[in-house]
């Protein structure tokens, strides 16, 4: 009997852990809201009364304290002014370099892709012209059907294939 009571007590204490993962905030109508999800972004930080034990997943957009703002203004005023604007820091140069390299890599990738497409079009053009020359020569042309049998193209199939080849030539041979 004592083990059963301990198990029930343990189970009840485990169920209460879910209550610790509750958010509590005051909404725009000044009502307390309890939820297992974070409050919407329009709820100010001062209205959040309770959050789960884990750090908040909401970004903190609160303004910097006055002391930090004064220190930043003093540091900016003490730095020598470069002609033509503010002098970028080393971090900005690194960021600019990374951005430039990423843009160059993207351009190179696009150029390589365009070259592949152009090469495929040129190859399609050459094949289509060769096939068109074969069909225009008037010789008999055969193809293999779905059953694996060889069949000679009649005039209708020959004409439709010539039209298809002409459309490929029109599209790829520019």
Task: Give me the secondary-structure topology.
Elements: H1 2-15, E1 23-26, E2 32-35, E3 48-50, H2 66-78, H3 90-137, E4 142-144, E5 150-152, H4 155-172
Antiparallel strand pairs: 1-2, 1-3, 4-5
Helix pairs in contact: 3-4
Report on this structure.
This protein is mainly alpha-helical and 174 residues long. Among the domains are: 22-52, no CATH class; 111-172, no CATH class. Helices cover 53% and strands 10% of the residues. The chain has a three-stranded antiparallel β-sheet with strand order 2-1-3, with no helix packed on it. It has a two-stranded antiparallel sheet with strand order 4-5. A hairpin with a 5-residue loop joins strand 4 and strand 5 (150-152). Helix 3 packs antiparallel against helix 4 (155-172). It is elongated. 2% of the residues are buried. The model is unreliable at 77-85 (pLDDT under 50).
What's the gist of this structure?
The protein has helices at about 1-15, 65-80, 90-135, 155-170, and strands spanning about 25, 30-35, 50, 140-145, 150. The protein is mainly alpha-helical and about 170 residues long. It has a 3-stranded antiparallel β-sheet, with no helix packed on it.
């Amino acid at each position: 009997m004592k083990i059963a009571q301990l198990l029930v007590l343990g189970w009840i204490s485990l169920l209460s852990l879910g209550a610790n993962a509750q958010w509590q905030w005051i909404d725009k109508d000044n009502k307390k809201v309890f939820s297992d999800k974070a409050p919407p972004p329009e709820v100010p930080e001062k209205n959040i009364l309770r959050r789960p034990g884990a750090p908040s997943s909401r970004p903190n957009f609160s303004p910097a304290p006055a002391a930090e703002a004064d220190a930043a203004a003093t540091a900016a005023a003490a730095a020598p002014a470069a002609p033509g604007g503010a002098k970028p820091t080393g971090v900005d140069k690194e960021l600019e370099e990374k951005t430039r390299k990423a843009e160059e890599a993207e351009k190179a990738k696009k150029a390589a892709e365009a070259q592949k497409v152009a090469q495929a079009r040129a190859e399609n053009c050459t094949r289509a012209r060769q096939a068109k020359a074969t069909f225009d020569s008037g010789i008999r042309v055969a193809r293999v059907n779905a059953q694996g049998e060889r069949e000679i193209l009649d005039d209708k199939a020959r004409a439709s294939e010539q039209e298809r080849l002409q459309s490929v030539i029109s599209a790829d041979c520019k």
